[in-house]
TrEMBL record:
It comes from the Bacteria. InterPro entries: Ca_channel_alpha-2/delta, CarboxyPept-like_regulatory, Plug_dom, Plug_dom_sf, TonB-dep_OMP_SusC/RagA_CS, Uncharacterised_YfbK_N, VWF_A, vWFA_dom_sf. It comes from Flavobacterium procerum. The keyword Signal applies. Pfam families: CarbopepD_reg_2, Plug, VWA, vWF_A, YfbK_C. Residues 347-525 form the VWFA domain. Keywords: Signal. This is von Willebrand factor type A domain-containing protein. SUPFAM superfamilies: Carboxypeptidase regulatory domain-like, Porins, vWA-like. PROSITE patterns: VWFA. Residues 1-21 form the signal peptide. The lineage of its organism: Bacteria, Pseudomonadati, Bacteroidota, Flavobacteriia, Flavobacteriales.
Length: 709
């Protein structure tokens, strides 16, 4: 009996060994007909519950045996079945349905006769039950007609999504999926030219129009729609985004560091990027927060210059809201407002990234709509060329007059994404085009639009920095526009803008594109002063310590101030720039002061009988004219006069509130009070001159973001 058990055990072990010997790992890539990888393809061993799915790059791995049947399934595409033979690598190409929606009809916001529509349409009435509508990201809604949306070739599932309209309101797939089927009156589907003629290029993958029986969701905002459908915020997820790390400015003593020198910063990309994270319910990366860019997103009511200089200087001192014993010094510049007709002619080169990483809806499609806003601002005397780059660079539109708007827009509409990201060749061609068409005394500018995921030389940031510094010598200015999320390379965009006589904005939606490229076109695109530097000498009789809030990557050495070879920021027509200092007054005890040192023997300043008791600091500015090479200096004394925060200007209150929120997001160790309630209260007190609603939006962001309450 014992021997039988031993034999049985041996046989079982042998079977197990043979099975293990036959089992192997199959790997491969699943693509569509255009060779774009497909993520989330379902792969199952037929007749079993074993399966897997492809990753972001269309790759998969599965353990199986020879003779097993692998079934590859993807919504909107034909399934493929492959028998495992001798090879351990199985690559699959899935094909779309050529006759999808061939019997269907659709309408948009208005009623359209079936005979008037070109392309396939479908109208679905709520007369049957048990039928399902499914989209390519897996959301499922029980409706009364079975269909699959047409899909284009793409490496990302988001691109394959149709557009959704619920009771006339644009919606997302997860919102569509949460609607109660019993509330639906009808579902309409539109594709091809019928979709794009009504909704534009964003409807290139079709439109699903859902009408409820009582217009339950009419006129709701996206957040209100989420709340009504009980949809939770998008969870925070790790990303492949790239931000330069930096350490916030510490307090310094005017005895050991009497001069504070920095370049102005007109960029505001950090604020719109932060807004994107907060609106998505995601954690804001600490290094994505540049406080000065948050402050400078908003416009303030500084007076126009009244002398020969291109900007006015405005200072104000009040209490610190986060450290009660400290003071805040606000420095505000207001650029001269030049009427549009008096602005010089523009020679613009659009440098557009059309690589594969730009395929998302919030990248190239949004980019094209953004540039159309800019094109509408052009005058007949302006000219535009379009250069694109992916695996290689090329010109798709030679320099064309601003009056030929249709020609320029047609060229934009034809752009498609695909290929690698060799940006160096694109930059070379764009600057070559700009210099060949250079307008003396004009606005010569390259406008780069990308997600920043591109390579120059060995792909290191130092190679890119050298290239753009060399191109700066041509006299051509640079505007950088950032798009997208997930793989966004903010660090590269910062380098380009900082080193290339440039400015930088992040476009998170069409409203931001309209603000930066439309309403603020003059300030964004026309420099009235370049290489603007600020240097402050604090009076040690009044100031025990000071620190510049933000501007960490814009700080300069004291000797750089008068060195005209050192690059600095540009100021545009009617632009405002704001900088804030936190001051520890003389005689105030503070936990933020570093260890004190004895007075130095050789650098001790002789006591002046004047003592400058009425002066807090002396501030100097240097700038060059847009086509000049020699800087001009301005000097102004700041009085030792502080007003209570509740009596300070609205600009003082609001700019300080924005800086406060930025320091909170960075988890600054130099602020004692981190209450969202205090930030909201101060921002509300300073909320004036907000015709566009941006300040009110900021207050909502602070109030409604749970993670920061």
């Amino acid at each position: 009996m014992k021997s039988l058990k031993l034999i049985s055990s041996a046989i079982a072990m042998l079977i197990c060994f043979v099975t293990m010997a036959q089992e192997r790992t199959i790997t491969g890539t699943v693509t569509d007909e255009s060779n774009s990888p497909l993520p989330d393809v379902q792969i199952a061993i037929k007749g079993t519950k074993t399966g897997t799915q492809t990753d972001f790059d269309g790759k998969y791995k599965i353990k199986t045996q020879k003779g097993d049947a692998l079934v590859f399934s993807y919504v909107g595409m034909k399934s493929e079945t492959v028998i495992v033979q001798n090879s351990n690598v199985i690559d699959i190409v899935l094909k779309g349905y050529s006759n999808q929606l061939s019997e269907v009809v659709v309408t948009g916001y208005h009623t359209t006769k079936k005979q008037m529509i070109t392309g396939s349409v479908a109208m679905v009435r709520s007369t049957a039950s048990g039928v399902q509508v499914q989209n390519s990201v897996g959301y499922l809604a029980s409706l009364d007609y079975s269909f699959k949306m047409p899909r284009e070739s793409s490496s990302l599932s988001q691109k394959n999504e149709p557009m959704y309209i619920i009771d006339g309101v644009p919606a997302k797939a997860n919102q569509m999926a949460k609607i109660n089927p019993n509330d639906i009156d009808n579902v309409s589907v539109l594709k091809d030219q019928s979709a794009t003629s009504i909704y534009g290029s964003k409807a290139s993958n079709g439109v699903v129009v859902i009408s409820t029986k009582s217009n339950l969701y009419k006129n709701l905002s996206e957040k209100e729609l989420d709340q009504k459908l009980n949809i939770l915020p998008i969870p925070a997820e790790p990303t492949q985004e790239d931000y330069d790390t930096f350490v916030e400015n510490a307090f310094e003593s005017p005895k050991t560091a009497p001069l504070s020198t920095f370049s102005i910063d007109v960029d505001n990309a950090s604020y719109t990027n932060i807004r994107r994270f907060l609106n998505n319910g995601q954690q804001v990366p600490k290094d994505a927060v540049r406080v000065e860019e948050m402050v400078n997103f908003f416009k303030y009511t500084y007076p126009q210059p009244k002398n020969e200089h291109p900007f006015s200087i405005n200072t104000e001192v009040s209490d610190s809201p986060w450290n009660s014993n400290n003071k805040i010094l606000k420095i505000g510049l207001q650029g001269k407002n030049i009427p549009t007709d008096d602005l010089p002619a523009s020679n613009l080169v659009f440098l557009i990234d059309v690589s594969g990483s730009m395929s998302d809806l919030n990248k190239l499609p949004l980019l094209k709509q953004s540039f159309k806003i800019l094109v509408n601002e052009l005058r007949p005397k302006d000219k535009v060329a379009i250069v694109v780059y992916a695996g290689a660079a090329g010109m798709v539109l030679p320099p064309t007059s601003g009056k030929e708007k249709k020609t320029i827009i047609d060229a934009l509409d034809k752009l498609e994404s695909g290929g690698s990201t060799a940006g160096g060749a694109g930059i070379e061609l764009a600057y070559k085009t700009a210099t060949e068409n250079f307008i003396k005394g004009g606005n010569n500018r390259v406008i780069l639009a990308t997600d920043g995921d591109f390579n120059v030389g060995s792909s290191s940031n130092s190679d890119m920095e050298k290239l753009i510094e060399e191109k700066r010598k041509t006299g051509v200015f640079l505007t950088c526009l950032g798009y997208g999320m997930g793989n966004y390379k903010d660090s590269k965009m910062e380098i380009l803008a900082d080193k290339g006589n440039g400015n930088y904005a992040y476009i998170d939606n069409i409203q931001e594109a309209n603000r930066f490229l439309g309403k603020e076109f003059k300030g964004s695109m026309f420099a009235i002063a370049k290489d603007v530097k600020i240097q402050i000498e604090f009076n040690p009789k009044q100031v025990q310590a000071y620190r510049l809030i933000g501007y960490e990557n814009r700080k300069l050495r004291p000797e750089d101030f008068k060195n005209d070879a050192i690059d600095a920021g540009e100021l545009g027509s009617n632009h405002t720039v704001t900088a804030l200092y936190e001051i520890i007054p003389a005689g105030v005890k503070s936990d933020y002061l570093t260890a004190q040192t004895d007075d130095l023997k050789y650098t001790k300043t002789e006591t002046n009988s004047n003592n400058y008791n009425n002066e807090l600091a002396t501030i100097k500015f240097r700038y060059k004219k847009p086509d000049g090479e020699k800087s001009i200096e301005m000097v102004q004394v700041i009085e030792n006069k502080s007003i209570a925060l509740n009596k300070a200007s609205d600009d003082m209150k609001f700019s300080t509130a924005v800086a406060w929120f930025g320091l909170k997001l960075r988890d600054s160790k130099l602020i004692a009070d981190k209450s969202s309630e205090g930030i909201v209260k101060l921002a509300k007190q300073g909320n004036s001159n907000d015709d566009e609603g941006y300040k009110a939006e900021f207050i909502r962001l602070v109030k409604t973001t749970k993670q920061y309450n």
